[in-house]
Structure formats: structure tokens, C-alpha cells
Design goal:
It is built from six helices and two strands. By secondary structure, the protein is mainly α. Among the domains are: about 45 residues, no CATH class; about 30 residues. Helix 2 packs across helix 4.
Length: about 160
């Protein structure tokens, strides 16, 4: 028997049990025909309920963060995480939340309406009204200029006379 094949040590021969060489049907027949004393309990086909996400209160998060921040010894944070069943990513996210005030994010669908929409609409409406008033004022000024030119009255002198009296 060769000890090396192509420069690689030869593997020892594998011993195969006689049951392994049987076909699939023969193996299943053999399992079914076992003596009644050797019966296996079949696995439970019941589907387990979906696992629920853990939810941590703000007080719990603050307490764990305080313990983690107070830990001075090497490996202390790891021991804390193991004892509480937490991950280091929990601490990272909770620290970010703490910096933002530990307020939970708003859940549910986002509002499709822009919060500035009402203010923009109101400002556009006010702008339209002011544009109309400006147009009327300019029209009145033009009429006053024409009337003063027809009557031969200088508008500049009227303004000066009123201020002198």
C-alpha cells in the first residue's frame, strides 16, 4: 500500500457500516421495523410562536449605561453585557439615544404633508394681496401725476408748501 499519492499522504481506508450502503427506502424500512422497545419519539411538528423583540425602558437603559460608564476594570463591560444578556451594539445605540434625550422615535407612517406647506401657502396668499395693493397704489399715483400736470400744479411744490405751513 502506498503511503503517499502525488506527494500527499494517503488517507486511511474508510470503514462503511452496512446500513450506510443501503438505499434510502431500505434504511427507512429498517427504522420502521425496529422493535417496539427501541422506538424514537418523532420530532414535534408544532410550529413555535414567533419570537418577540425585547423592549427596554428608558430607566433600564440609563441604569445599564451608568453601570457601563462606571466600570473601570478590564473586561467589566463584557461581564456586564453577559450578565444582562445584551450586546455591545445595545450600548452604542443607547449612548446615541442618550445624547438625543432617550426619546423613542415616532413609529408608523410618515406624514405625507410637508409641515411648512401651510406657512408657504399663507405667505403666498399674503404676497398676492400685497402685490394687488401695490398695483392699485401705483395706479393712483399715476392718476395723481396726470391730474397735477393737467392742472399745472407741481407735486413737489405742494409737498413743500404743506411742510412750511
Amino acid at each position: 500500500m502506498k503511503t503517499k499519492v502525488n506527494g500527499i499522504a494517503a488517507l486511511p481506508p474508510v470503514l462503511v457500516s452496512p446500513e450506510a450502503e443501503r438505499s434510502e427506502a431500505e434504511r427507512s424500512d429498517a427504522e420502521r421495523s425496529r422493535a417496539s422497545g427501541e422506538t424514537k419519539t418523532p420530532p414535534d411538528p408544532e410550529v413555535l410562536a414567533k419570537a418577540q423583540r425585547r423592549q427596554f425602558t428608558a430607566d433600564y437603559k440609563r441604569r445599564i449605561l451608568a453601570l457601563a460608564d462606571a466600570t473601570k476594570e478590564s473586561g467589566g463591560i463584557g461581564a456586564l453585557l453577559r450578565s444582562e444578556g445584551l450586546y455591545s451594539s445595545h450600548l452604542t445605540h443607547w449612548r446615541q439615544q442618550r445624547d438625543r434625550g432617550l426619546t423613542p422615535r415616532q413609529r408608523g407612517p410618515k406624514s405625507k404633508r410637508d409641515p411648512l406647506f401651510d406657512e408657504v401657502r399663507k405667505l403666498k396668499q399674503e404676497n398676492g394681496h400685497l402685490t394687488q395693493r401695490l398695483a392699485r397704489a401705483e395706479l393712483i399715483i399715476d392718476v395723481q401725476k396726470k391730474v397735477s400736470s393737467l392742472l399745472g400744479i407741481s407735486l413737489a411744490t405742494i409737498g413743500n408748501d404743506e411742510s412750511n405751513s
